[in-house]
Design goal:
mainly beta; seven-stranded mixed beta sheet; 11 strands; 54% strand; globular
Length: 115
């Protein structure tokens, strides 16, 4: 099965930046739609950004212009560059890989933004 490992989370002050990485175990990574989700305390998990195998991207409105999702198929890795971070971005961020009827999740990485 596909294994996903997130990294790059941490604590940062408002206005700062972080880059999350999600490394996958599959050589077939390139055919997967990859996404970043987040879940704040007491909130439902939401889609933050998504990138398809063809490079099409989708962002939740609250992060447009601040976050960028990208992928490096040679490294089987997807990234989430987060700039101009706000306290409202504080959450556990999860990597997701999806193909056909299959969907896989990482264990999550904590992002904390202080004001």
């Amino acid at each position: 099965q596909v294994q996903l490992v997130e990294s790059g989370g941490g604590s940062v002050q408002a206005g700062g930046s972080l880059r999350l990485s999600c490394a996958t175990s599959r050589n077939a990574f390139s055919m997967y739609t990859m996404g970043w989700y987040r879940q704040a305390p007491g909130k439902k998990r939401e889609l933050v950004a998504q990138i398809t195998s063809g490079g099409s991207t989708v962002y939740v409105d609250s992060v447009k212009g601040r976050f960028t999702i990208s992928r490096d198929n040679t490294k089987n890795t997807v990234y989430l560059q987060m700039n101009s971070l706000k306290p409202e971005d504080t959450a556990v961020y999860y990597c997701n890989a999806r193909y056909a009827s299959y969907s896989y999740w990482g264990q999550g990485t904590q992002v904390t933004v202080s004001s």
